[in-house]
Amino acid sequence: MPRWRFPTAKELSDDKIRNDSPTKFAKAIADFNGDGVPDQAFLLKSTKFSGEGLLVWLSNGPGTFRWIVLDTIDWGPKYPNVPLAMGIDIIKPGVLEYICVVKEGADGCDAEGEGKLKMTLRRPALFHFKFESAGSAFYWDTDARRFIWIAVSD
């Protein structure tokens, strides 16, 4: 994890709504891939560019883990000291309404129809959101062996 660092207390204090969570909405723990081992998701600051990333420490077999970068935000050199802009939380298994699946490599998607679509989550998913704004979710697809990104709100 040499390209990433944990956010400072100052970077986590910019938005008062962060106080509503013991982890400041910067860490989430759940068994995302269904192997019985808790995985950990973190919002981290980049040490290489002015930005942040959503990374998961995913169990990868007995006693082994690997880092997966799910999303990054690069604020560019004009904004060198931006605090964390996003938050994360757990979505419990059950019915989830969403707008669309985000295609790999895309920044977003257009709505796939009128209203929201529904899916049933068998395992916890990761909610990635901007406070009082849009949010998306990442859930583990067992067949594809990767996280799928879906837009939950716009």
Give the topology.
Layout: E1 4-5, E2 27-30, E3 39-46, E4 51-59, E5 65-74, E6 86-91, E7 94-98, E8 100-101, E9 117-121, E10 125-130, E11 135-141, E12 146-153
Antiparallel strand pairs: 1-3, 2-3, 3-4, 4-5, 6-10, 7-9, 8-12, 10-11, 11-12
What's the gist of this structure?
The protein is mainly β and 154 residues long.
Low-confidence stretches: none
Sheet/helix structural class: mainly beta
Mean pLDDT: 88
Largest sheet: 5 strands, antiparallel
| Structural Rg | 16 Å
Helix content: under 10%
Tell the overall outline.
Answer: globular
Question: Could you give the distance between the termini?
Answer: 31 Å
Order of helices and strands: EEEEEEEEEEEE
How does this structure look, described?
It is a single chain. The chain is built from no helices and 12 strands. With 154 residues, it is an all-beta fold. The strands form 3 sheets. Strands 1, 2, 3, 4 and 5 form a 5-stranded antiparallel β-sheet that branches. Strands 6-10-11-12-8 form a 5-stranded antiparallel β-sheet, with no helix packed on it. Strand 4 and strand 5 form a beta hairpin. The protein is globular and about 40 Å long. The two termini are 31 Å apart. The model has no long low-confidence stretch (mean pLDDT 88).
